[in-house]
Amino acid sequence: MSDSEIVRLPPRDGVPIEIKLRWGIQKDDLAALGVLHDAAFPVKYESEYYDWMLSESCLALLAFTTENCILSLLKAAEHRQYTETERDEENSFGVVENNASSSLYSVMVGCCIGQIAYGQRRDGRIEASPTGYLGSFAVDSRMQRCGVGGVLLDRFLSYMFFTVPVPPHLFLDYSPPYLGYEGLWGLISSAYPRLFDWISRWWFGKDRKDTNHAAEDTLKDEKPCDSVDSTVNSQIGRIQCGVGEVWLHCVAEDTKLLLYYMKRGFSPVLVAPNFYFFGGRYHEGALLVCRKDEALITSHERNSARATGKKLGDEAGQETFVATGLSNDFRLRDGNAVLPATMSEEDSSGADIVDLLLMTDLTGLRRKWRSSVGKLAFFSDLLAS
């Protein structure tokens, strides 16, 4: 299997369009990603966010096209503005001739960047089962309305719903099976979470040498893999394939973008006041979710995602630094709060999940999860097992 594919899109203004989709971000991509983000989003990302993009916990799908395609589209756009007489004189707006350099897919024109996250309920409880989060989704303005965004989003959702490996240790209520004395093991994991995570990675082969290159690996069906199930037992020691939901935030006042997401199967959950800060004032943020059983994804997209998907890196369960998101021009959320700092009770609309906690480190999240569900309930479940 390959970690990239060539997709042919419908022609626009007589210009044939092909893009190359590639999973994973390389260091050479960061400059182009910065330009793409700055052009697409009113908020600014700090350098830590781009550093995180090179980590194993980043799940990214990039789109590239050729310089020839960009030049042809620009020339066609100029031609549409001419008068009828000028169009007769300037009738060479078609495809620019190919040459050795223009045939390379060297121009980044889109991205879908996400990661594993955990939902936080209105009462402060944290969901033990991992979910998906789409952190940034952007398309170069020169390639918008060409189908690039649709292909990117469909591939990304397909991968998250049907393919992304979710090892047992990513479940916050996980304790390794078959070691005997499960109750004692749970007590150790509670008292010494760092030791617990290290032993878990060692036991399941997560801490071996030469495992830091997963970003370049292709998806291989080498291990037993269960499809996602809301009733899945996270203690069975099998790798689950796919998550049940993918969440995202966007500027609530951007109705055009909201309608785009809703047409793609996303549903609005709540509006959080004062979520973003840019342009000298606060802006509301909308939280949306796309559920696997409601996703508008064809079987072709599922197969394409499986064929090109990047597997979750071996370091995903480690205490890898993950940038929490936007800090400048962005109001960060505190996972310890009973309610997210950006949401009032009046705006909650009875939503079960009101915030998403990114996978900054599993040790901290497990500690928060145990605190959120209550120690008595945790130890009762532990002894009952």
Write a brief caption for the model:
This protein is of the alpha+beta class.
Structure keywords:
385 residues, alpha+beta, 9-stranded mixed beta sheet, 12 strands, 25% strand, globular, histone acetyltransferase activity, transferase, chromatin regulator, N-alpha-acetyltransferase 60, protein N-terminal-methionine acetyltransferase activity
Protein described:
The chain is of the alpha+beta class and 385 residues long. The chain has one domain (112-384). 30% of the residues lie in helices and 25% in strands. The chain has helices at residues 30-40, 47-52, 67-80, 84-89, 148-162, 182-191, 193-203, 255-263, 299-308, 362-373, 375-384, and strands at residues 4-12, 15-23, 59-66, 105-121, 131-139, 165-166, 225-227, 239-241, 245-251, 267-278, 281-291, 353-358. The strands form 2 sheets. Strands 1, 2, 3, 4, 5, 9, 10, 11 and 12 form a 9-stranded mixed beta sheet that branches. Strands 6-8-7 form a 3-stranded mixed beta sheet. A hairpin with a 2-residue loop joins strand 10 (267-278) and strand 11 (281-291). Helix 6 packs across helix 7 (193-203) and helix 10 packs across helix 11 (375-384). It is an enzyme of class 2 (transferase). It catalyses: L-lysyl-[protein] + acetyl-CoA = N(6)-acetyl-L-lysyl-[protein] + CoA + H(+); N-terminal L-methionyl-[transmembrane protein] + acetyl-CoA = N-terminal N(alpha)-acetyl-L-methionyl-[transmembrane protein] + CoA + H(+). One of its GO terms (molecular function) is protein N-terminal-methionine acetyltransferase activity.
